[in-house]
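Recall that a protein's primary structure is simply its ordered list of amino acids. Everything else, from secondary elements to tertiary packing, is in principle encoded there. The following example makes that idea concrete.
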Amino acid sequence: MLCAWAVRSPHDLVFEPSFGGCVFIESILSAFRKLNCPKPQENIYGCDTDESAFRYLDSAISNFNTDHFIRDDFLRLHPGNFRKTGFDILIGNPPYVSLHNMPCAQKQTASLVQNCHGIVVDRRASLWAYFLVHGLSFLNEGGRLCFVLPGSLIQTDYGKKLLHQLSAHFAKIAVLSIAERYFKRVGADESTEILLCEGWKKGEAKKGIEVASVTDTNACRERIANWQKGAWTGFQLNGQAASHLINSEGDKILKAWAKRSFGKRLSSFVTIRIGVVTGANKFFILSQKSAKDHELPGKALKFILTKAKFSKGLFLTTSDSRRTKSQGQKCLLINTLKASKDKNILKYLDAFPKTKIKNNKTFSKQKVWHQPILGKIPDGFLTYMNHHSPRLFLNEISANSTNTIHRIYFNKDVSYLNKLLVVISFNSTLSQLSAELEGRVYGSGVLKHEPSEAKNILIIIPKKAKLGEARDAARRIDIALRNNLNDTATTIADDYLKKAIPTIWTAKKLLRLRAALAAARKRRYPKPQFLNCQSV
């Protein structure tokens, strides 16, 4: 399908920068044959670092021209290595290796191609972004680019920034986001994004970055054909991509309500910070049994929330901490500030390898290497990564959390009633939909929120709320969440808001919001994978 779009002339020169198992190579050959190209193998070029790729190549193209295919890192090559000044088509499925998983040598190579024709790759980008930008130097004027890319293309800031830069150099750009997960069988849970760029150096894309959601390859084929004929125009990518890929009616309601006096962003009430960074959680956070085995004094141990599932409700309570300890979970943080001279503490600290102390970046930021910067005790917590839905809950026991959970600090002028209203609203369909649009989807469908994203989640605060009714709604939501009944918790929150602001929270608008929320979650999980699941 993609090669049929890209290859349009028997004279086109095609380059594949990571041909691997030669799936694209075989399809390119087929596309040329349909155009009655007499020697299609003479029009195809490529490279790969893997020796096995050349065994596949030998099967795909018998007696292939060795000048056309080089075994080397694409980022080290240029068109001159292939005795060409440029190519008409750049096509393929580049590696998805994240920045954190790149070996040092690869990072160094990537850093050499961060800028091409003024298009800059963000330093946080994955390897595919470097392949894309470096590939531009291989294109002839008027050339076409077609890449199969991961969801980070439209989910991450660096991906969207890169797209907007490309739109200044290509006449047309489209992204087709395919809901079906195609690469799960080979261990990749990423969503599939098809990037089509046409008319390199032929002016700016007048229609911007056109984005569409499609269910599968058949729908994708139809959209591509219509786009090429000018019979279809996608949504222009502005801001978060998710709003372009789901029920637009729900997004319209969100935007309209955000402008009303009762609609507030989460940042209007709270400051969001990451949790405590110890630098070595396995060493500093122990189970009750392990602390006892090392005879560590109780005054040096403090309960810390390490996983959101250890508190399932709307409040972190003493019962939650007791249960977590009794289950043998690692939830006790060693606080050496209160017992730094205890002989058992000193013995335990002495077991930490000296070389690791010296090389640990977190330790170097602390006055004493074994005393993490705890900061203020938070008023509440916000789940960081979620299968079903994010959850905001209040801290009733003066506990802290690790950086697997965000910490919430309410502004000084926020009353207890408004704190309850914030956590109630956070469970509503509206706030859950807003969270889907503000967050980003990773890997197997997990929804992730950095503090900068979570602060934009929309909250509805009724003006004439009563403390008793809010407490009752919060209590019932807490019970529902603790019984893994997420949808029930959302219904309770919706019912409360409907009663508090009946002229705004109408049944018709609520149905539209629920349809949009269902669409957003279906995009993350094309096939049902959970029923009322809790946060990770």
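Residues 507-524 form the longest helix (18 residues). The radius of gyration is 27 Å.
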